[in-house]
Write a structure and sequence with these properties.
Elements (H helix, E strand, L loop, with lengths): L1 H23 L9 H5 E6 L3 E6 L4 E7 L2 E4 L3 E3 L2 E4 L8 E12 L5 E13 L7 E11 L5 E11 L4 E7 L2 E4 L8 E6 L13 E2 L5 E2 L7 E9 L2 E7 L7 E2 L2 E3 L5 E3 L2 E2 L10 E2 L4 E3 L3 E6 L4 H11 L14 E2 L9 H14 L3 E4 L20 H13 L3 E6 L3 E2 L26 E2 L5 H17 L3 E4 L2 H4 L18 H16 L4 E4 L16 E3 L6 H15 L5 E5 L6 H12 L3 E3 L9 H14 L5 E3 L10 E7 L2 E7 L5 E3 L12 E4 L5 E7 L7 E6 L4 E7 L6 E8 L2 E8 L3
Parallel strand pairs: 25-26, 26-27, 27-30, 30-31, 31-32, 32-33, 33-34
Antiparallel strand pairs: 1-2, 2-3, 3-4, 5-12, 6-11, 7-8, 8-9, 9-10, 10-23, 10-24, 11-21, 11-22, 12-20, 13-14, 13-16, 15-19, 16-17, 17-24, 18-21, 19-20, 28-29, 35-36, 36-37, 37-44, 38-39, 40-43, 41-42, 41-44
Helix pairs in contact: 3-9, 6-8, 9-10, 10-11
Length: 717
């Protein structure tokens, strides 16, 4: 009998243990519903609710039609890893709600949920660690929650920590439809073919998100029913990461990571009774694609400003002539360009002797005065004059500047992708040099600075030169980069300042100090439009965005012109000769550009990239709406290996689209109003249509081969 009882007890015990492990090891594809059962606190708007569980798991839910819906299917709590590998487990002990009016970072009413948790420290320290996490919801951003955490050691001895892994989120479409992805950090993007802002979610995609490479600190995943964005709200460069991976089931795994020590010996300690605060993180549930989350980031980082009128004007750059142009070629081009209506030009790469010296090329000019005379001649012809400038690049032959460049652990200067050195932006002598550079350009009569080079696209690496002012703070050079753009903005009074990122995701910390964001050297027309939409979100719906028309690309004749005119991008150019693409073609598009003049029109977010076919954009100009529809005839290629050594190793993950035939929708109109719709490229009226109750006009039997440009104007009743 006892034996039977013992067997039964063992059997029950095994069942209990099995059920326990099944519970804690549940498949990640199942919704995390514990928030409804074990939640100890929550913060809510009419768009989002965030539930805090006892184990400090923080779970966002989307509010739709008054009901909670899972947008994130699984989360893991933040993990703090101390030196030696110990990971304390935090449990919530206290919650408190507050309402306050704040000026920073955003002016307005803020709802706050303050959560306090405790964890035991390692045995050797006989201490506890307190975690204080604040969840904030700002007025006018009901779809976004900001999270910031601080840690306090309660004990007698300090503890070093190695890394902090933020909560890991997993996103799966509730409708099992394909998802799209925006990945903003630019660190691991090596090839222009990979630089898309609207990627299909494909198995094998992975990025570490090392922000030492610059870019925009945002991950966004969306489907037709909505999306989830994770954003870092740093006010400057930091060592926080945004890792992402896609598993075999197309589940997107995303999170954030802070490494203060591992890579750069940046010591991070929890000291007794002192708060150690991590940079804030935000997550947002939203409709549509990445546009809305990037608008939220723009508000937090104050990226929008008023822009000078000159920032909206097209210009010609000498790059079309290569770097070996002559004064005579430039003057000949200006005579042709003036007939087309251009009133601005820019001396691109090749005007100078060597990077870092910034003196006119002796093979082209007889000294500085000769260059000044050319500038004066150009201005007398009615042109504004710009200059290509890489403020921190140095030719290795300039040995006098070696002492000011960033160096590796062996005290050797880094060489960037252009085989050039980079000045340390934290050095006062470097800052003085830049002041002198800009004063010289001003003396020459320059109106416009075009900032280019690797630092714009990526970042300044850590500097191990102990003779520099930062001494042992190796990341001082990395953190100081935005201050250089602030300095240029201050010194370049009255000049336009433009920045070119080489087609990559642009670094947000430099944005407040420039007038024009240039898409610059894109891989395709599609990439132009996707980056254009991201920049309109970040810099504002009426911000000036530039992109030159490249006569050397096969698809530039139709694609680039339609991009620039339809989206309100000034049709800047690098043409060698107006006859390269046909003078009549240029006259047609420039005339259309001047007539409609959409460069200061307001971008309207009405279409979802990746789901609305054909791809659509709309600009509001006065009472009219301008619609541009495009066929994406470029395949999308990404690296699905651990590393890709050449563009040939990239995998095609999305094939080109074919000619579109079917119905198109004109959205964002006044419901019940009648509109005259015309093809303004062909100057042909399509018809008169009445907008439905949703402010939409549907037009059937439309054929689109590459693009379609339409204009909708209210018609008299």
């Amino acid at each position: 009998m006892r034996k039977k009882i013992l067997v039964f007890v063992l059997f029950v015990f095994v069942i209990i243990i099995s059920l326990f492990f099944l519970r804690i090891q549940k498949p990640s594809s199942l919704p995390l519903r514990e928030g409804k059962i074990f939640g100890v606190a929550e913060i809510q708007s009419d768009k989002i609710v965030v539930v805090v569980n006892k184990d400090f798991t923080i779970v966002p839910f989307r509010i739709k039609d008054g009901n909670r819906t899972e947008i994130i299917y699984h989360t893991e709590p933040d993990t703090l890893t101390l030196k030696g590998g110990f990971m304390p487990t935090f449990y919530v002990v206290k919650t408190e709600k507050q309402t306050a009016f704040e000026k920073e970072p955003i002016r307005g009413v803020t709802e706050k949920l303050i959560i306090t948790g405790l964890a035991d420290g390692p045995r050797r320290c006989e201490c506890t660690i307190e975690r204080i996490t604040t969840l904030s919801m700002y007025e006018g951003m009901a779809d976004t929650i900001v999270m910031q955490s601080s840690y306090k050691l309660k004990g007698d001895n300090s503890l070093s920590f190695v890394e902090l892994n933020g909560a890991r989120y997993q996103f799966v479409s509730t409708k099992k439809e394909p998802l799209r992805l925006y990945y903003g950090p630019a660190a691991e993007t090596l090839y222009k073919d990979e630089d898309y802002f609207n990627l299909p979610v494909v198995s094998g995609y992975r990025k570490s998100g090392d922000l030492l490479g610059g870019g925009t600190p945002v991950i966004d995943v969306w489907g037709r029913e909505g999306g989830f964005a994770l954003m870092l709200l740093e006010q400057g460069p930091s060592t926080m990461h945004l890792p992402i991976s896609v598993d075999d089931q197309h589940v997107v795994h995303m999170g954030w990571k802070y490494e203060p020590i591992v890579a750069f010996k940046e010591q991070a300690e929890l000291k007794p009774n002192e708060l150690y605060t991590i940079q804030p993180v935000a997550f947002s549930v939203h409709e549509g694609d990445y546009y809305l989350p990037l608008r939220r980031l723009s508000r937090f980082l104050k990226l929008e400003k008023e822009y000078p009128q000159g920032a909206y004007e097209p210009y010609w750059k000498t790059w079309g002539l290569g770097s070996d142009w002559t004064k005579e070629q430039v003057l000949t081009m200006l005579d042709q360009l003036k007939n087309l209506g251009f009133r601005a030009m820019l001396f691109d790469y090749g005007w100078f002797e060597r990077e870092g010296e910034w003196i006119p090329d002796s093979s082209k000019f007889f000294g500085e005065q000769d260059f000044i005379q050319l500038v004066q001649i150009i201005k007398k012809k009615g042109f504004r004059v710009g200059l290509w400038y890489a403020p921190l690049q140095v030719d290795p032959e300039i040995s006098s500047l070696r002492r000011l460049v960033v160096k590796d652990k062996n005290n050797n200067p880094y060489e960037d992708d252009d085989d050039l050195w980079n000045l340390d932006p934290s050095e006062p002598a470097v800052q003085d040099k830049i002041r002198q550079d800009i004063a010289r350009f001003r003396r020459w009569g320059v109106d416009h600075l075009y900032l280019d080079s690797q630092q714009v696209q990526l970042a300044i690496p850590p500097d191990y030169d102990a003779t520099h002012v930062h001494k042992d703070d190796v990341l001082a050079s990395f953190r100081a980069l935005p201050s250089i753009y602030r300095l240029i903005r201050q010194e370049a009074r009255g000049m336009l300042v433009e920045i070119c990122p080489d087609g990559r995701s642009q670094t947000v910390f430099n944005m407040p100090f420039v007038d024009i964001n240039n898409i610059g050297d894109p891989g395709s027309d599609r990439q132009v439009r996707e980056e254009f939409k991201s920049l309109k979100a970040l810099r504002g719906p009426v911000s000036p965005i530039n992109n030159y028309i490249d006569p050397f690309e096969d698809n530039s004749v139709s694609g680039d012109f339609a991009n620039n005119v339809g989206l309100g991008i000034p049709p800047s150019s690098i043409m060698r000769d107006t006859r390269d693409l046909g003078e009549q073609l240029w006259k047609k598009w420039l005339s259309l550009y001047k007539k409609e003049y959409l460069v200061q029109a307001e971008y309207q977010n009405q279409y979802i990239l990746g789901f609305d076919i054909p791809e659509g954009h709309v600009m509001k100009h006065g009472v009219a709406r301008y619609y541009s529809f495009f066929i994406n005839y470029d395949p999308i290629r990404v690296c699905l290996k651990r590393t890709c050594m050449s563009s040939d190793e990239l995998t095609i993950v999305e094939e080109p689209e074919q000619k579109y035939y079917g119905t198109i929708e004109l959205r964002g109109l006044k419901n019940g109003k009648t509109y005259r719709v015309s093809n303004y490229e062909q100057q042909k009226t399509i018809g008169f249509f009445k907008a439905d109750e949703f402010g939409t006009i549907s037009i059937i039997n439309q054929v689109i081969d590459r693009h379609l440009l339409l204009k909708a104007e209210e018609a008299s009743e």
